[in-house]
């Protein structure tokens, strides 16, 4: 029988939307129908019909990561059960913590990481189709998730960002943003007129810390890895910025912080931190956020920093941002408010394509990013 294209299309729509009766429809028949719908370009998804991709941690890191450490795989997704939803990644984050954290996983594990995307099928009323979400789903294009079965890393529906891009849920309105917000405010207690030094200053967390400190009336000095990054920091309002690759950090810091350093937000550790701590004032506060200077290398030798701690009566505290899980939305809302008031600028370094995740990750570790490094999944 010859069918007109319009009739054929209508028939397919009916098959997809009306004839899906749980009693008559087997999984394989449903899957076949959904495949047809996908091929004909309509928004009618089934997890089993999707060609999902994921990046595997194929070889244990030694030194700087290389392409050999990663392998691209396809995966078949299970059919959705009650409580499940199916998420499609739109942006995936590449973060420094992935380098040390992956050392705790065996080769062959999924690469860990956060992503923002859309719910494209759902049997969970809290995650309806079309919702924009954040999930700690790793480097994968599609994820079937049942939050009730997860002990930690609960996904969440993103609050409305207005006209701002959803990718900010990985940066200034997500984990790095909350790291800057809670890390600085809770651990350093900044006061107007005090001096803050931030290392890793042109990255996702660092530039944000400096901007909050400026909003609070502090003097802010950033330390970053190129003249271009230092200029960007000054354009953002930092009082001074020091290129740690070319400058005598001690000498430049003495000039940039003539009244000494009251707070140090440390993203890098090692010799940079040793130098900053020498210039701390009495009762100075140090928030230890990260030690990226040794993620790819042996730990740098430094002289005993505890001497400075005693005589200057410093307070030094390490933290992991998940400490403030119960106040997560408070941080996002405060940062969103500052953005909307023009008091907080954001910048992203965007790499295109799921297949380029390892390249984006390796590039970020080498300082290739300014602001937040994210990968756009096409
Ligand atoms: N504690 C927490 O909960 C938490 C949460 C998020 C992040 N962190 C930590 O915070 C730090 C910054 O994270 P982020 O997400 O904002 O990353 P990021 O700063 O956006 O990116 C990493 C940056 O580190 C710098 N870098 C690389 N090697 C370095 C070295 N040997 N010495 C000094 N700087 C180096 C590079 O910039 P340059 O060009 O300036 O070298 C690079 O752009 C990391 O240590 C991360 O582990 C901690």
UniProtKB/TrEMBL annotation:
Alphabetical list of Gene3D superfamilies matching this protein: Medium-chain alcohol dehydrogenases, catalytic domain, NAD(P)-binding Rossmann-like Domain
Superkingdom of the source species: Eukaryota
A Pfam family of this chain: ADH_N_2
Subunit-level organization: Monomer or homodimer.
Family statement drawn from the similarity comment of this UniProt entry: Belongs to the NADP-dependent oxidoreductase L4BD family.
Cell inner membrane listed as a keyword: no
Domain Enoyl reductase (ER): 66-375
Protein name in the entry: Prostaglandin reductase 1
Known EC number: 1.3.1.48, 1.3.1.74
Keywords attached to this entry: Acetylation, Cytoplasm, Fatty acid metabolism, Hydroxylation, Lipid metabolism, NADP, Oxidoreductase, Phosphoprotein, Prostaglandin metabolism
Major location (coarse): cytoplasm
Compartment annotation: Cytoplasm
CDD domains given in the database record: leukotriene_B4_DH_like
InterPro entries in the cross-refs: ADH-like_C, ADH_N_2, ER, GroES-like_sf, MDR_fam, NAD(P)-bd_dom_sf, PTGR1
Catalytic activity: nonan-2-one + NADP(+) = (3E)-nonen-2-one + NADPH + H(+); 6-trans-leukotriene B4 + NADP(+) = 12-oxo-(5S)-hydroxy-(6E,8E,10E,14Z)-eicosatetraenoate + NADPH + H(+); dodecanal + NADP(+) = (2E)-dodecenal + NADPH + H(+); octanal + NADP(+) = (2E)-octenal + NADPH + H(+)
Keyword NADP: yes
């Amino acid at each position: 029988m010859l069918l007109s294209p319009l009739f054929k299309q209508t028939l397919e729509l009916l098959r997809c939307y009306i004839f899906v009766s749980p009693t008559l429809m087997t999984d394989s028949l449903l899957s076949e129908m959904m495949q047809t719908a996908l091929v004909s370009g309509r928004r009618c998804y089934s997890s089993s019909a999707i060609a999902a991709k994921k990046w595997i941690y194929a070889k244990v890191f030694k030194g700087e990561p290389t392409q050999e450490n990663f392998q691209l795989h396809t995966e078949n997704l299970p059919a959705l059960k009650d409580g499940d939803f199916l998420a499609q990644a739109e942006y995936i984050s590449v973060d420094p913590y992935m380098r040390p954290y992956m050392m705790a996983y065996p080769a062959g594990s999924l690469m860990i990481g956060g992503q923002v995307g859309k719910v494209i099928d759902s049997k969970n009323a809290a995650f309806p189709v079309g919702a924009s979400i954040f999930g700690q789903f790793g480097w994968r294009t599609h994820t079937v998730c049942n939050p009730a079965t997860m002990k930690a890393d609960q996904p969440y529906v993103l609050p409305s960002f207005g006209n701002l891009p959803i990718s900010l849920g990985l940066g200034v309105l997500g984990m790095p943003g909350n790291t800057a917000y809670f890390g600085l405010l809770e651990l350093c207690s900044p006061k107007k007129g005090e001096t803050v030094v931030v290392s890793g200053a042109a990255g996702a967390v660092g530039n944000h810390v400096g901007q909050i400190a400026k909003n609070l009336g502090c003097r802010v000095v950033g330390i970053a890895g190129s003249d271009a990054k230092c200029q960007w920091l000054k354009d953002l309002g930092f009082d001074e910025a020091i290129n740690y690759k070319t400058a005598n950090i001690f000498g430049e810091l003495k000039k940039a912080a003539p009244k000494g350093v009251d707070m140090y937000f440390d993203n890098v550790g090692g010799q940079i931190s040793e130098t900053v701590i020498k210039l701390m004032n009495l009762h100075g506060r140090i928030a230890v956020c990260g030690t990226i200077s040794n993620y790819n290398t042996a730990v740098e030798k430094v002289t005993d920093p505890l001497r400075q701690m005693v005589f200057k009566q410093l307070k030094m505290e390490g933290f992991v941002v998940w400490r403030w899980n119960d106040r997560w939305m408070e941080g996002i809302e405060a940062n969103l408010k500052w953005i909307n008031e023009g008091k907080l600028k954001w910048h992203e370094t965007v790499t295109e394509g799921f297949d380029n995740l390892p390249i984006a990750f390796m590039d970020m570790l080498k300082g290739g990013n300014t602001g937040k490094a994210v990968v756009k999944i096409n």
